[in-house]
UniProtKB/TrEMBL annotation:
Family matches, as CDD domains: vWFA
Residue ranges of coiled coil: none
Gene3D superfamilies: von Willebrand factor, type A domain (3.40.50.410)
Signal peptide bounds: 1-22
Alphabetical keyword list: Signal
Protein name as it appears in the record: VWA domain-containing protein
VWFA domain ranges (all copies): 77-367
Amino acid sequence: MIKRITAALLLMSLLISSYFIPGEPAAAAEEDIRIDSSVRASSQNIRMVHGINAESILDIEAIPKGEAPKTERPPIDVVFVFDKSGSMNDIVQGKSKLEHAKEAMAAALKIFNENNKPRTVKDRFAFVAFDSGVNPDNSQFTLNSDTSGIASKVSAIKAEGGTNYTNSLEKARMILESGKGSDARNQYILFMTDGKPTNSEKTEQTNKRYLELIEENEYISKYGYYWSGLGKYWSGNVTTFKDKTYMIGDSNNRTVQISGAKKMHFDTNPGRNYIIVEHNGKYYIERSTASAVQEEINKHITDQAKVIKEKNIILNSIGFGESSQVDMKLLEDISSQAKNATDGGIVEIYQELSKKWSSPTPILSDVQIQFNLPDGAVLRNAADAVLLKNGKYKISLPDVLYNPLPAFQDPKMKDPRKYTAQLPIVFTKPGEYTINMEVVYTKDNAEFKKPIAPVTVKVEEVKLEKAVFKPIEVKVGETVVLNDKIEYFPADATYREIRQMQKGPSNAFELTFENGQFKAKGINPGFNTIQATVVSGSEQITANGTIQVVSSGNDQLKW
């Protein structure tokens, strides 16, 4: 009886467990969303023959796997960071950059709105406009699923001022961090700029002397315009700050030692190159070089980007301008992905990112094949591969969209279910080369890395077995190159460096070495021996031969 009761209790516990362990099938389906990759070498054993580098082609294959889950994707928060500096008035393809950027924003909002309509938990959006600083009048600092407020702000924007990456990115981060329920959302910043950074504000520690800034009207009321005010203008001791004109104090009676944590303003706009410190309700200035101030500004930006990354916020940047106008290297350094729009193609970039981030089904983005090349292995054609800062190479693949089955998003692909590429590798020396690869992609704001089974290529040296001189005949007064007179066995031996040559005791010819070539010049009719030392890898081979010197009048000696 007791055994029956025990068995019944066990059965009931199993049934209860099956009902109260939710989500396992869904979790398994989510794990199935991945990219499987493989690589194989067209030739894994190669003979390296003399004068020709060995080569093998790596055939790479990437196949997305899995199926889109039926559940709604996690909601997203997006902050648009929008450059409204004066250079946005520049004309590109018949209209201002500002007009292009406004069209791009409208196209992005349209896509976000369409994908947001059927959602149960809505996506949210905010907008940060910036010039020399963050511009509150043209911004929407609260996250909202209704984008009409952003659209109104965008349409009213006018281009003016400098370019402040630091504080606009900081504001975008703070908006995302303060959003209700932000932990359950994937978060993005879309940063657009058409220029290099010129301004930054940051509270920093200082301990040095600064010149006092005196507001123009206050200065003139104290010291007069004609005698002292004009002198300031003539000497260049005048600057503008926050839309006001200031006179810069004299170094002998208007300097102040300032120490501690102070709010500091950095500016590299034309004619400025200064650092202004706020201290006890007044402004003080340190003049500097453009490169020194720019270095500080760039450091502020990279520091802010590090914090954004630590918060698991995806930052994508768009540089809207030519390379002389936009620092694309800086944008690439601070961003998960940076794109350059030079010809008005900014609308397409905004649309692409909007579709990717708001897609109702999963997208695998920023898909890459990354790999190292061992010493002695080089790419024959690096057009498809880019060298990264960490020494690895990357090949960029199209995004993968699940709907519900996966497909690479490239209309040029014959089969969107499978990506293939060929990578020609040249080997410059014998050895065993193991090439490690991994597929890298982003899913739901997280980066995934999956190792690919390594491929090994063996490049074998063709050993030199022997070397002999061919029969050599030279006329008196004539010179022959001896390097070409040695015969090698086998002929395609990998290494055959002629290290030295020496002749026998006869004076039939003169042996010289010039420009990497050994030469024999006929002196007297007769015979003499010649010997060469040939180095092949770690081996040394001796080649022997005889040179016959004949008179120029065809009075030849016989062998």
